[in-house]
Amino acid sequence: MKKTTVKNVFVKGAISPEFIAGSIAKHQSKTGIGAHDIFLGQVRADEIDGKTVTAIDYSAYEEMANQVFHEIKEEAFRDFELSCLHIYHSIGKVKTGEICLFVFVSAPHRKEVFKALHQLVEEIKAKAPVFGKECFEDDSYQWKVNR
Prior knowledge:
Elements: E1 10-12, H1 17-25, E2 35-42, E3 47-48, E4 51-60, H2 62-79, E5 84-95, E6 99-107, H3 110-127, E7 130-136, E8 141-143
Parallel strand pairs: 1-5
Antiparallel strand pairs: 2-6, 3-4, 4-5, 4-7, 5-6, 7-8
């Protein structure tokens, strides 16, 4: 029985535009791919109780969270005809306007990537044990509730 490797999806701090561009560029040589779809989650400057969010500080029990991300990926490969699938999530503090989640899906045909990406993002939000503290301009914070 083949042992699958659980990859680390976590990136310290914000996910940079250069990292995203590099990930896309690496797929140019994969000529069986006909479509890509990308989701970029960005930290919003929400106003909560009169205070503005300036950052989110993400934490996770990384070993367990990576296993959950692995299971979400495996399910997507079972459900859709995908060529590639990459998930990256920030750990640590990410300022408003910066990217905290990068999901990149590739397949021979466009319909698969659209459907797969939607399912993936919903599964990540519902199942991944990643927690965020919303940090405010007055240095107070509160645990984030997904809206």
